[in-house]
Design goal:
It is a single chain. The protein is an alpha/beta fold. Helix content is 24%, strand content 31%. The chain has helices at 12-29, 45-52, 105-116, 174-178; strands at residues 5-10, 36-41, 60-68, 79-83, 93-101, 121-129, 142-146, 152-153, 169-172. Helix 1 packs across helix 2. Bound molecules: 1-O-pyrophosphono-5-O-phosphono-alpha-D-ribofuranose (PRP), manganese (II) ion and magnesium ion (MG). Belongs to the purine/pyrimidine phosphoribosyltransferase family. Pathway: Purine metabolism; GMP biosynthesis via salvage pathway; GMP from guanine: step 1/1; Purine metabolism; IMP biosynthesis via salvage pathway; IMP from hypoxanthine: step 1/1.
């Protein structure tokens, strides 16, 4: 897999440092609360697992799977709920954990959906933010790194469902996705 990577953007150590830094911020924010921390499948699973262990407060964790349609339906920007959380978020403080915010469509969908269910507060922590990709407004409260408009993979992020298990985040060689 390493052969398919043009350059490493964030090493395992840099990711761990970001998790510690964000964890400290989040811990302060929720010091006297018991948030519901929701990881967005599948990309955020590695980040979710690392960051919650950097936060020393009581919390509940859950996962949600949403799917956004690219290609033919890109203009519609439709996002569907695939697998729901099992937690009732009404009246709860919710923290969404994402690996990356790109167009912002996934996050916008989640914010709307969770607020309709009566969440008391909703905050967002994303490891990567790609502001140049934004199509709809979507703001995060805790951000690990701002990334350039490049195709990044690893540490949960996929290309064609692969590369998620790389222990670092890197830029994919263009020939990998242009030859397919
Ligand atoms: C990716 C990524 C974010 C979302 C961001 O998920 O993990 O959840 O896209 O893109 P957006 O800001 O343009 O909506 P994807 O839908 O590819 O599913 P995955 O996490 O299973 O890879
Ligand atoms: Mn995702
Ligand atoms: Mg994906």
């Amino acid at each position: 897999m390493d052969n398919d990577i043009l350059k490493v953007l964030y090493s395992t150590d840099e990711i761990h440092a970001a998790c510690s830094r964000l964890g400290r911020q989040i811990q302060k924010t929720y010091a006297d609360k018991v948030p519901v921390v929701i990881g967005v499948l599948k990309g955020a699973t590695f980040f979710m697992s690392d960051i919650v262990r950097e936060i020393d407060t009581y919390m509940e964790i859950d996962f949600i799977d949403v799917s956004s349609y690219h290609g033919a339906t890109q203009s519609s920007g439709q996002v569907d709920l695939i697998t729901d959380i099992s937690t009732d978020v009404a009246g709860r403080d919710v923290l969404i954990i994402e690996d990356i915010v790109d167009t912002g469509r996934t996050l916008k969908f989640l914010m709307t959906n969770l607020s309709e269910r009566g969440a008391k507060s909703i905050k967002v922590c994303t490891l990567l933010d790609k502001p140049e990709g934004r199509q709809v407004e979507a703001k995060s409260d805790f951000i690990g790194f701002q990334v350039p408009n490049e195709f990044v993979v690893g540490y949960g992020l996929d290309y064609d469902e692969k590369y998620r298990n790389l222990p670092y985040i890197g830029v994919l060689k263009p020939e990998i996705y242009t030859n397919n």
